[in-house]
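Appendix B, record 7
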Amino acid sequence: MKDPEFQLGIVSYGLYLPSGFETAEEIARRSGLSREQVIEDLGVERKCFPAAEDLPVVMAVKAARQALERAPDVDPGQIDVVIWIGEEYKDYICQTAGIRVQEELGARKAWGFDLIGQGTTSLVGLRTAQDLMIGDPAVRTILLAGGTRNIDLVDYSNPHTRWMLPTSASGAALLLRRRHPYSRLRGTAFAVDSEMADEAYVPGGGTVQPFSPKILNTESMFFKIPHPREMEAYMAERIAAQLGGVIQRAMAQAGCSGAAPDYLCLRHLPPKNRSKILEGLNLGKETTDALSDMGHHGPNDVIISLDRALKRGAVKNGSLVLLASVGIGFTYAAALIQWGPA
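Structure tokens (predicted):
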């Protein structure tokens, strides 16, 4: 969107990371893999490990408060919309977490709702926020906030879901404003492989298999892969190509067709997938972060990567920062940010 009236800018962001960690050795011991397999195949040296009190909404609220602390000119009462961008697995079943975040922050005048896009929800949130600003001139300030704790849904002993072992926990938030003259959203792109819609899910607790004493402490409470061979082939052959495609389309929407971003905030991926994406974009390893010491945080990965890049000076004023992610579904998303003053 070229019209400055509708250009969205990032005012600030916030993060909450649990203080505990699980090492590659501990993951190996629980999963039956070797330490080398955990590090070399999965790309995890350690990952954040939540305490009992680190609940998705609680972590999201802590991240949102940090975002507001970093934006002293924005009062919670000025927030027009609060959008949940965390995972579907929240503190309670059928909870509208965006409204819970709104209440905790004191954003009394806001409208709140939840988005579900699996690992891409933070980027879907950016696009949704932009579209809300275009559609309603009264919407000026939007808060995106979400938490993830899908680590609880991963059975370490299941060989078919070992690619999910990097799953971790965190909270993240983005504070956005219409016509904000800094860190503007320049392009977005999305894609899905709809034939993969039911290839990774938790069977227990839904209407197909409702809660009952029979499913407690069984495999029904964890992620299931109905067709493991097909999933393995898909992940090896499709993820890099699809993600590379949405990255190129986001760049083209911003008028940067054929160019490469200055920095790539990429979700945690196995090293082989990450290498394919970097090779396809002609980017070096220094232009991204493997998150090998953090694990996978679903939609929060891209915000964690951005935070780390800013702290080590890899992203500066003027940098073209590309946020890219993929989630089960399978859904793909990319968003290009021009960091710093417009």
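Remarks on this record: The chain has two domains: 4-180, 186-341. The two ends are 14 Å apart (CA to CA).
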